[in-house]
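Field notebook, page 771. I keep forgetting to write these up properly, so this time I am using the form the group agreed on. The chain and the ligand, adenosine-5'-triphosphate, are recorded exactly as supplied. Prediction of the bound pose follows.
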Amino acid sequence: MKFALLDDELIFLQESTYSRIPSWRMRAVRGDLRCPGCGAALRLVAGISFEPLFSHTAEPCPLQGLEQPPEHLLVHRSGEETAATVAALPASDQRTFGSYRLPTGKPIGNTAGSGERPKSEAAFRKKLRPRHAIPHLAERPPDPLHPEQKRAVLSTEGPLLILAGAGSGKTRVMSARAAHLVQDKGVDPRSIMIVTFTAKAAEEMKRRLSNQLTAQQTSRLICGTFHSIFYRMLLFHQPERWQQERLLKFDWQKRRLLQESGQLHDAELAGRKDAEIDGALGVISRWKNAFITPDALEQLDCANEEEKLAKQLYPVYETAKQAYRYFDFDDMLLGCYQLLQSEPAILARYQERIHYVMIDEFQDINRLQYETVRMLAAPQNNLCVIGDDDQSIYAFRGSDPRFILGFTKDYPAAQTITLEVNYRSHASIVGLGYSLIGNNRIRWKKEFKTYHQEEGESYLFYPEDEEEQAARIVDEIRQQLAEGASPGQFAVLFRTYESTRPIIEQFIQAALPFQFTHEQELFYDKQVVKWALGYLRLALDPDDSSALREILSTLYISHEQWNAIRSQAILDDCSLLEVLPKLPNWKSYQRQHLQKVVEILRALPTCSPRQALELVYEDGKLRDYVRKRMKESHSASQTSWQDDLQQLLTAAKRHDSLPQFLAHLADMNHQAKTLRKQYAAASEAIQVLSIHRAKGLEFDTVFLLDLVEGALPHEYALDELRKQQSHALEEERRLLYVAITRAKRKLCIGIPLERFGRKTKVSRFIAEMEK
Ligand SMILES: Nc1ncnc2c1ncn2[C@@H]1O[C@H](COP(=O)(O)OP(=O)(O)OP(=O)(O)O)[C@@H](O)[C@H]1O
C-alpha cells in the first residue's frame, strides 16, 4: 500500500515524498509506521525496479495493495493531533483528504532524519537507455555453436587469433575446440595445453570438458593457470629450488622479509612506511612481469616517487630472497622462462609433447607469459589465443593489451576470427556496453550483435547515501526472491573495497545468504575507526582502560604518562577520565586540550551517535590528528582515512543512541569475522565481488555500487587525466564495461547523492552510454 500512519499523521508514498524514504525507513525499523486500517506495524519496501510501498510485516490486512486509504477509515481514524498539526498551516498550504486536512506543496509526513533535497536533484530511479542500439541476430541458429564459433572450433592448425566480445561464447568455443581435437581429430589430450586466467576458470573449463570427454581424457589435458602449469614444470626439473614452503604468497611476507633481512638499513630506505614499501613491491612485480630485470634499471626513467623507491628496493628485495632461498609468484614465471631459455633440451622435450596451445583472456597476458608461451608453441605454432581487448583490466600487474593487438604482426600467418554476437545479455545491456566502450581510443573496433530479442532492464537509482543504496538493493533482492529467484542469480559489484561495508552489514541484518571474499582488514578493525570508537566507548565508561589506551596516540600521551594516569586513578580512587587532565606535568596547551576532551566525552552520552562523532572529530580534534598522520606518511593508501571517518558518520546516522550504535558495530564486526570463515556454495549465495574478480562470470541481475566520480572512474585515473594521461581512464572504462556485461537480464546502477559524507558527481561514464 502507498500510505501509512506516522505519529498520527497520514503519509503517502508519491514522487514528491520519495526523498523522505530514508527517514521513513528508519522509523519503520523502529516500528513507528502503522497501518491506518489494522494498526499493525508496517515495513517500508523501496527497491529499484518497482514503485516503493508500505507492507505489513505479519498478516496482511484488507488495505494491503491499496493506493489510497478508504474514506470510512479516514473518518474513523481522523486524529485531532493530525488535524492540529495541519491546522497550524496557512489555509493555502492545506488540502483535504477525507476527513484529514493535509499540507500541500511540500512532502507530507514527519521531517525528522534526513534533510530535504530539491526534487530535481534526483529521481527515485530511471530506466537507462543505451545511446547506441545494437542489431539483433537475424535468426538464431539451432546448433549449439554459431557459424563463426564453429569456424573457430574447426580452425585447429597454425596461429589463430579469436577476437571476441563480452558474452560471445569464448569458454564455449575453447571447450568445444579441445573436445573436437580429441574426439574428431584423435589428438592425444596430453599434447593439448589450455591456459586460463584464474583457477576458477580452469575448473569451469574442466567441468565443461568432462561433459564431452571421458574422465581420463579430461584429466590428461594440461589445463590450468600460467602459474599452476609453470610451477609444475619447475617442480619437476628443479624440485629443491621451488619448495612450496618457500613461496612468499602475500605482500606482508615480502615486506617482512625485507624488514627482517636487515637490508633496509640503508639510510635512504630506513623509516619507510609499510604502505610505501607495499606500493613499491607492487611496482617491482609489474616490472618483473614486463621482463625488466634489476640489470635493466639503470636506463629506466621513474614516473613517480613510488617507482623511485621501487628502483632502490628491487635489487635489495632480490638479494634478500636469494639469501633465504624464498621465491614469489613472479619468480615462478621468470624461473620457467629462464629454464626453457637456458636448457634447449628441456624446451625441445616440451615442444615435442605440446602440439596445441590455447590461451584464454589473452588480453591480460604479460610479456613474460607471452614469451614463454611462444617458446612452448614453436615450431608448429598451433597457438590459439582468444580474448577481448575491451576487457583488459590488469595493467597494474603488467598485462598489456598490445600483445593481443599486435598478435598478427608477431604471427603474420595468423587467421583472425571475430565473435561479435553477445549471447549472454539482453539487448539494452549489450547496447550500454557498446555505447560505453566505443569511447576508448586504443582498441580493436568491433561490431556487436545481440542474440536476445528481449530488451532487459537497466536502471539508474539515486539513493541518498551509501547506506540507502544498500537498503534499496536489499529490498530489490528480497522482492525478487519472493517472486521465486534464487540468491545465486544476484551479484553486487564494486570498484574498491571501501564501497562494501554498508551492503555487507545490510545483508547480515536482513539474513540474506551472501559470499564475499575480503583479504583486507575489516572496516571496524581499521586504526582510524578504532580511534573514533575509542572516544565513544570512553564516553560511556570513563574507566574503560582499553578505550583510553586506544586513543592515547591521538592525545599525544606517551606510555610513561599512561602508566602515571593509571597509578593516579588508583591513588585518587577516581575514574581514568577524571584524572586525565590533572596529571601535574602536562604542558599547559596539552592540559587545556585534555580538559576540553574530557568535557566533550562527558557530553557525548546524551548526544546522537552522529553528533557525538562530529564533536570528537571537530572539537576533539581527531580529524586534525588524522590529517597530520596522513601528511607524515605520504602514502596513497592512507588517503582513505578521512573517508573512513566519514563512513562511520554515515553509519551513525541510522542510530539513536551511543550504546545501541556501539552494540550494533560490535555485532557487525563479529558477524563479518565469522562469515569470513564460512563459504556458502556460490549457487546459494548472493555474490559480492570486485569487478576484477567478476571477470568471466555471469549473473541474472547485477547491482553496481557507486557510479560516481572518484569511485568509478577511480580518483587515481582522474589524477592521471589531470596530467594529460588517459590510459588509466581507458582502463576504468574497460572495468565498467566488464561490470555491465556480467548482467544477463537486469542491471541496476547506484548513484548515491552523498558518499563519505560529501556530495557526489555522477560518473562521466553514464553520459557516455546513456541516450
Ligand atoms: N551459440 C550459442 N547459443 C546460445 N548461447 C550461447 C552460445 N554461445 C554462448 N552462449 C551462452 O552465452 C553466455 C556467454 O558465454 P561465455 O561465458 O562462454 O562467454 P565469454 O565470451 O567467455 O564471456 P566473457 O568474456 O564476457 O566472460 C553463456 O551463458 C553461454 O552458455
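OBSERVATIONS:
- Residues 75-121 have pLDDT under 50 and may be disordered.
- The first strand starts at residue 3 and ends at 6.
FOLLOW-UP: compare against the apo run.
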